[in-house]
């Protein structure tokens, strides 16, 4: 299990381009659909909680998953897995990487990749929204948070804390 | 001992950077002015490289900054320093979560946090979209890809590779 966790998160680290949310499409396919280690709901949990714990969100989500599957050792394995590709690639390519980046073809390829990552994230939002936004209160919270974040650059920490307080007040949770 | 100092500085960043990769940027500018290990201009280049390399951006930046400052070992200690605090904290939080997962209070809390979490994912997508979908052709390609992703469930890695190829062919 420890080894499987390392390999799976190594693969995820290898193919994720961008910030925190870019990990979600890969997590969804590898960890939720194929390996069935997590339910989709848990990914949403970890993403929200990962915003409020210090550190890099994608790494935090990996640590959570590893812990759930195999305790402390699993947490370490998943975390090491997701950071190792960065270490290898940057340490090996550091000398030439800036030359490489000014290459015309590389720039075009990265634009293409970013377009795809945007589409992947859009699809994740659609799937998760359909499964996890179940009534008009939840829809209202969703719309309000998107609006707030677009209007004022609100820190994710406040969004999660605010939503948590609201949730305690609404008392609408059902036992999983 | 530059390695020790690097480890310690990145440990601090890992402990105080709340909210993901790019949040570490102001901390890195601080490092630049405090120690002069690299110039602000070099740092801007390092951020660009980190955004285009595979892996979480924050991790890439730590590795690159560590490497530029103190070689391969520097890259390794900076990266370990960055992730160590969150590794410990997340393990503690996960333990607490295990205990309360079934409690009504936790479920009430998560009832409202779930839609907020999905809203934050959408926001991340919008921010990325604003940078990337800047011409009719990129918008068109994004829609085509979205259709493919939604209706033909291939592995995301395949779409990412395909995106790179389309980018080169169409000179995006």
Structure report:
The complex is a heterodimer of chains A (176) and B (172). Chain A is mainly alpha-helical. Helix content of chain A is 82%, strand content 1%. Chain A has helices spanning 2-15, 23-34, 40-52, 57-101, 104-132, 136-151, 156-170, and one strand at residues 17-18. By secondary structure, chain B is mostly helical. Chain B has helices at residues 2-16, 24-35, 40-52, 57-100, 104-132, 136-151, 156-169; one strand spanning 55-56. Chain B has 2 domains: 2-100, no CATH class; 104-169, no CATH class. Classes of the chains: A mainly alpha (176), B mainly alpha (172). At the A-B interface, helix 1, strand 1, helix 2, helix 3 and helix 4 of A face helix 1, helix 3, strand 1, helix 4 and helix 5 of B.
In short:
With 176 residues, chain A is mainly α.
Question: Major sheet of chain A, described briefly?
Answer: none
Beta strand count of chain B: 1
Large-scale geometry of chain B: flat
Low-confidence residue ranges of chain A = none
- Count every helix of chain A, treating DSSP H or I runs of 4 or more residues as helices: 7
Order of helices and strands of chain B: HHHEHHHH
**Strand percent estimate of chain B:** under 5%
Mean pLDDT of chain B: 89
Q: How many strand units of chain A?
A: 1
Helix content of chain A: over 70%
**Termini separation of chain A:** 26 Å
Structural class of chain B, by secondary structure, is mainly alpha
Structural class, from secondary structure content of chain A?
A: mainly alpha
How many DSSP helices of chain B?
Answer: 7
Characteristic terms for this protein:
heterodimer, A: about 180 residues, mainly alpha, globular, B: about 170 residues, 7 helices, flat
Describe the secondary-structure layout.
The complex is a heterodimer of chains A (176) and B (172).
Chain A: H1 2-15, E1 17-18, H2 23-34, H3 40-52, H4 57-101, H5 104-132, H6 136-151, H7 156-170
Helix pairs in contact in A: 1-2, 1-4, 3-4, 3-7
Chain B: H1 2-16, H2 24-35, H3 40-52, E1 55-56, H4 57-100, H5 104-132, H6 136-151, H7 156-169
Helix pairs in contact in B: 1-4, 3-4
């Amino acid at each position: 299990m420890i080894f499987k966790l390392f390999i799976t998160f190594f693969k995820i680290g290898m193919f994720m381009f961008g910030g925190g949310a870019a990990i979600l499409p890969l997590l969804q396919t590898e960890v939720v659909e194929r390996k069935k280690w997590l339910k989709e709901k848990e990914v949403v949990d970890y993403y929200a909680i990962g915003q409020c714990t210090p550190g890099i969100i994608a790494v935090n989500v990996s640590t959570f998953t590893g812990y759930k599957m195999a305790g402390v050792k699993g947490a370490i394995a998943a975390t090491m897995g997701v950071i190792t590709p960065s270490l290898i690639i940057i340490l090996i390519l550091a000398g030439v990487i800036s030359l490489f980046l000014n290459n015309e073809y590389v720039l075009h390829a990265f634009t293409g990749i970013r377009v795809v990552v945007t589409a992947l994230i859009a699809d994740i939002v659609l799937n998760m929204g359909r499964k996890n936004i179940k009534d008009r209160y939840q829809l209202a919270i969703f719309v309000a948070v998107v609006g707030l974040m677009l209007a004022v650059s609100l820190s994710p920490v406040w969004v999660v804390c605010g939503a948590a307080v609201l949730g305690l007040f609404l008392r609408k949770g059902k036992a999983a | 001992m530059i390695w020790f100092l690097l480890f310690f500085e990145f440990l601090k960043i890992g402990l105080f950077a709340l909210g993901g990769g790019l949040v570490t940027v102001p901390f890195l500018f601080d490092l630049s002015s405090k120690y002069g290990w690299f110039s602000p201009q070099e740092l801007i280049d390092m951020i660009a490289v980190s955004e285009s390399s595979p892996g979480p951006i924050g991790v890439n930046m730590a590795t690159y900054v560590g490497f530029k400052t103190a070689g391969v070992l520097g890259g390794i200690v900076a990266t370990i320093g960055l992730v160590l605090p969150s590794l410990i904290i997340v393990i503690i939080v996960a333990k607490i979560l295990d205990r309360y997962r079934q409690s009504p209070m936790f479920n009430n809390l998560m009832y409202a946090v779930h839609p907020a979490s999905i809203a934050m994912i959408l926001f991340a997508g919008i921010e990325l979209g604003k940078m990337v979908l800047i011409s009719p052709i990129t918008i068109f390609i994004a829609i085509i890809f979205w259709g493919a992703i939604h209706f033909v469930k291939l592995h995301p890695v395949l779409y990412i590779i395909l995106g790179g190829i389309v980018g080169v062919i169409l000179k995006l």
